[in-house]
C-alpha cells in the first residue's frame, strides 16, 4: 500500500512526471526522519538509515533528479 501511494506521487519509472516531488522535498523528509516511515521501521528495524546512508541517499536523489 505504501509503495502504491508513493508511486502515485513520484514514480521513478516515469521520468517526465514530477507531481511536485523535488529532490529538496525528499531531502527534507530524510533529514527530518520522515523517511523511511516509522511504521515501516517498526517491522523492519534494519531499514533505519545511518547518517552516512542518509547523506548518500540525499546526494543520489539530487543527482538523479537534476535537470540536464
Describe the structure.
- The structure is a single chain.
- It is built from four helices and no strands.
- It is an all-alpha fold and 68 residues long.
- It has one domain (21-68).
- Helix 2 packs antiparallel against helix 4 (51-65).
- The model has no long low-confidence stretch (mean pLDDT 85).
Mean pLDDT: 85
* Main sheet: strands, sense, barrel: none
Basic shape? globular
Number of E strands: 0
Radius of gyration: 13 Å
User: What distance separates the N and C termini?
Assistant: 32 Å
Number of alpha- plus pi-helical segments = 4
- Classify the beta-strand content into a percent band: under 5%
**What sequence of helices (H) and strands (E) makes up the elements?**
HHHH
**Structural class designation:** mainly alpha
User: Helicity, in percent?
Assistant: 55-70%
Number of domains: 1
The low-pLDDT segments are none
Provide the descriptors you would attach to this structure in a database record:
68 residues, mainly alpha, 56% helix, globular
Quick description:
The chain is mainly α and 68 residues long. The protein has helices spanning 2-9, 23-31, 38-43, 51-65.
Q: What is the topology?
A:
Layout (H helix, E strand, L loop, with lengths): L1 H8 L13 H9 L6 H6 L7 H15 L3
Helix pairs in contact: 2-4
